[in-house]
Design goal:
- Its EC number is 4.2.1.75.
- Residues 21-248 form the Tetrapyrrole biosynthesis uroporphyrinogen III synthase domain.
- Keywords: Lyase, Porphyrin biosynthesis.
- This protein is of the alpha/beta class.
- The chain has two domains: 9-39 and 173-262, Rossmann fold; 42-170, Rossmann fold.
- The chain contains ten helices and eleven strands.
- α3 runs parallel beside α4 (98-106) and α8 (197-206) runs parallel beside α9 (222-230).
């Protein structure tokens, strides 16, 4: 077992209950992970027009699902609106990333287009090339979170008719663990792990008096890292692979590199 993370304390800002795999990986390396959710995800109420869209899914040729949350909340809402989670047979599904693909399969469906990347930018160009070959302008449904950017619909606007529905919202939790707050304020941790820009922004709101130069953080993906830098933070580790194993590998590489420089 690598000794580089032995006895180190990490703080996860993922939503409540979403740090299980991360905890397991870090524990196996001798580290401790504290959960400190900085975002909470809740379903959004649908408008009458949006409910109608759920009842007319057969008019779409494609549905794009960008995250596991998107998959789960889509089928939750479909069940509420229709009374079942059955999709039209002709509706094809495109997903971003392996984790989204696996979540979709739990609901009994397989993706017709899987992008190995983890961002809207990674997805948009390959998917645009894919739908261009059909010779028609397909109708695409985009069930997203309220903070999701417009990258996909903007990129596909020339090649498809996109309908966006915001099905879940991201907000700051009402309660925070006072012990973890105390650790952060007293600098009794090794690194804080962020997985989204929302977490970065909420952290800044929660700790406005802490020096951004002294906060030690790791980020999943360049989008989160960019939000951190724009907010004045300097990520020590950035995982290109948006997964628990990806962020742990990046953190481990940081400490290995740091120890090499000391010798």
């Amino acid at each position: 077992m690598s000794q580089h993370l032995q006895n180190k304390v990490f703080i996860s800002t993922r939503p409540k209950g979403a740090s299980g795999e991360l905890n397991s990986l870090l524990t196996d390396l001798g580290a401790t992970l504290l959960e400190f959710p900085l975002i909470e995800i809740k379903a959004l109420a649908l408008t009458g027009e949006e409910e109608k869209t759920f009842l007319e899914l057969e008019k779409f040729q494609w549905m794009v699902l960008t995250s596991s949350n998107g998959v789960s909340y889509f089928f939750e809402m479909l069940q509420k609106v229709k009374g079942n989670s059955k999709l039209p047979e002709e509706l094809q599904i495109a997903v971003i990333g392996e984790k989204t693909k696996k979540t979709l399969e739990k609901f009994g469906y397989r993706a017709a287009f899987i992008n190995p990347g983890s961002t809207a930018e990674d997805f948009s160009e390959p998917f645009a090339r894919h739908i261009k070959t059909t010779g028609t302008k397909p109708k695409i449904l985009l069930p997203l979170g309220n903070l999701a950017r417009t990258v996909i619909q903007d990129h596909l606007s020339e090649w498809a008719d996109c309908t966006r529905i915001d099905i879940y919202q991201t907000e700051m939790p009402e309660k925070m663990d006072p012990e973890v707050v105390d650790r952060i304020e007293k600098d009794k941790y090794d690194m804080i792990i962020f997985t989204s820009p929302s977490g970065i922004y909420n952290f800044l709101k929660l700790f406005p008096g802490l020096s951004t130069q002294k906060i030690r953080l790791a980020c999943i993906g360049e989008i989160t890292a960019h939000a951190a830098r724009e907010s004045g933070y300097h990520p020590l580790a950035v995982a290109q692979n948006s997964s628990s194993s990806g962020i742990v590998e990046s953190i481990l590489n940081y400490y290995i590199s740091k120890n090499i420089k000391k010798t």
